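Aggregate trends can hide what the representation actually does to any particular protein. The sequence in question and its structure tokens are set out directly beneath this paragraph.
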Amino acid sequence: MSAALVALLLAWPASAARTSTAENAFRDGVGFYKGARFEAALQSFNKALELNPDLRVASGFRAMVRWTQGDLKGAKQDAGEAARFKPATSEQYVARGMARYVLRDLPGSKEDYEEAARLDKKNALAHYGVGSVLSSEGRAQDALEPLDKAIDLEPRSAVLRVVRGTVRDKLKQWRGAVDDYTKVIEFNPHFPWARLYRARDLRELEEFSNASDDFGEFLRIYPDHEEALYLRANCLFQVKDYAGSIKDLNRVIDLNPKRGLAWSNRGLAKAQVGDPDGAISDLKRAAELEPNKREKFQAAIDSIQAKLKLENRMPERVNGQAAEPFEPPAPEDELSPEPLPPPRPDELRKPNIPRRVESPDGKERRPETIKNPDSTPFLE
């Protein structure tokens, strides 16, 4: 027996073991991804590719995880690798579909997912991918059918329910979306974005107290998330916690001093706690920042000044400006809090936000700062 053949035979078991270990790491990563445990999934895919750099299926999945976490450069690098290989199995078609999605080749991505579903009708990620592409193409109603199929196959997959929840959001199916996000929180309580998404929908359903609780849980992880603070302030106003609303709006204005509606809402809250001077000052600042709503803000100022007049407390000057009396408007003319529309999932990426990170065993580690936090997987 030649020395070369002996060397080859001796090396084969080690090579086979590395391949097996890489496959195991890949399998772990897929499981973590389905559970919306993206940091753990990334670690597993990293391990799989360290052990077997030619495992292109892992590159496709890692591309999606990196894209989800905001690492667009790394995602495109992985996607470029995965998009070049020729799939043979349903899972490989899913991986290339993910890569093409990251590269914004939506038609190619959809073709891959459809082929994956044809090869294996029970591959939940294949149906999930089809639904995700349809949603990204603006076909939210059409996206529900494949997403429903995916969840029927794997009802305990958090990532599938996150995406169906966001599609239901687009269709204004608030209660259905709340149900999906509730399941996500049940399956993965360490995925804080489900709290934010559910809070937005509870607010739409006018369940302001429950929404405020969810915003609070999210803000415990991301204390300076502007949209969450802003929307919780609105909910607190609705349940007559005006002091709490003012506190949140103070922070919103610190983060974004040019957000006119934050000034106007704070002014309305100040009026409720007996601070008319502060209310008028805030409303005037709002009118400067939002000139298209100047008439509404002026009507609120007029109402506050009229109330002061009726109470014989009409100030001669407010913040150095002469205050003129006005007749009180009819109640329906009074300004109510008018928050911006709830943010879309893609608007939730904020740079340099501390977040809790989980390890592969599912336990939380200490907060750390990353370039972008987890956003909604798969969807724009």
Q: What stands out?
A: Residues 124 and 150 are 4 Å apart (CA to CA). The chain has a mean pLDDT of 83. The longest strand covers residues 364-370. The chain is about 65% helix and 5% strand.
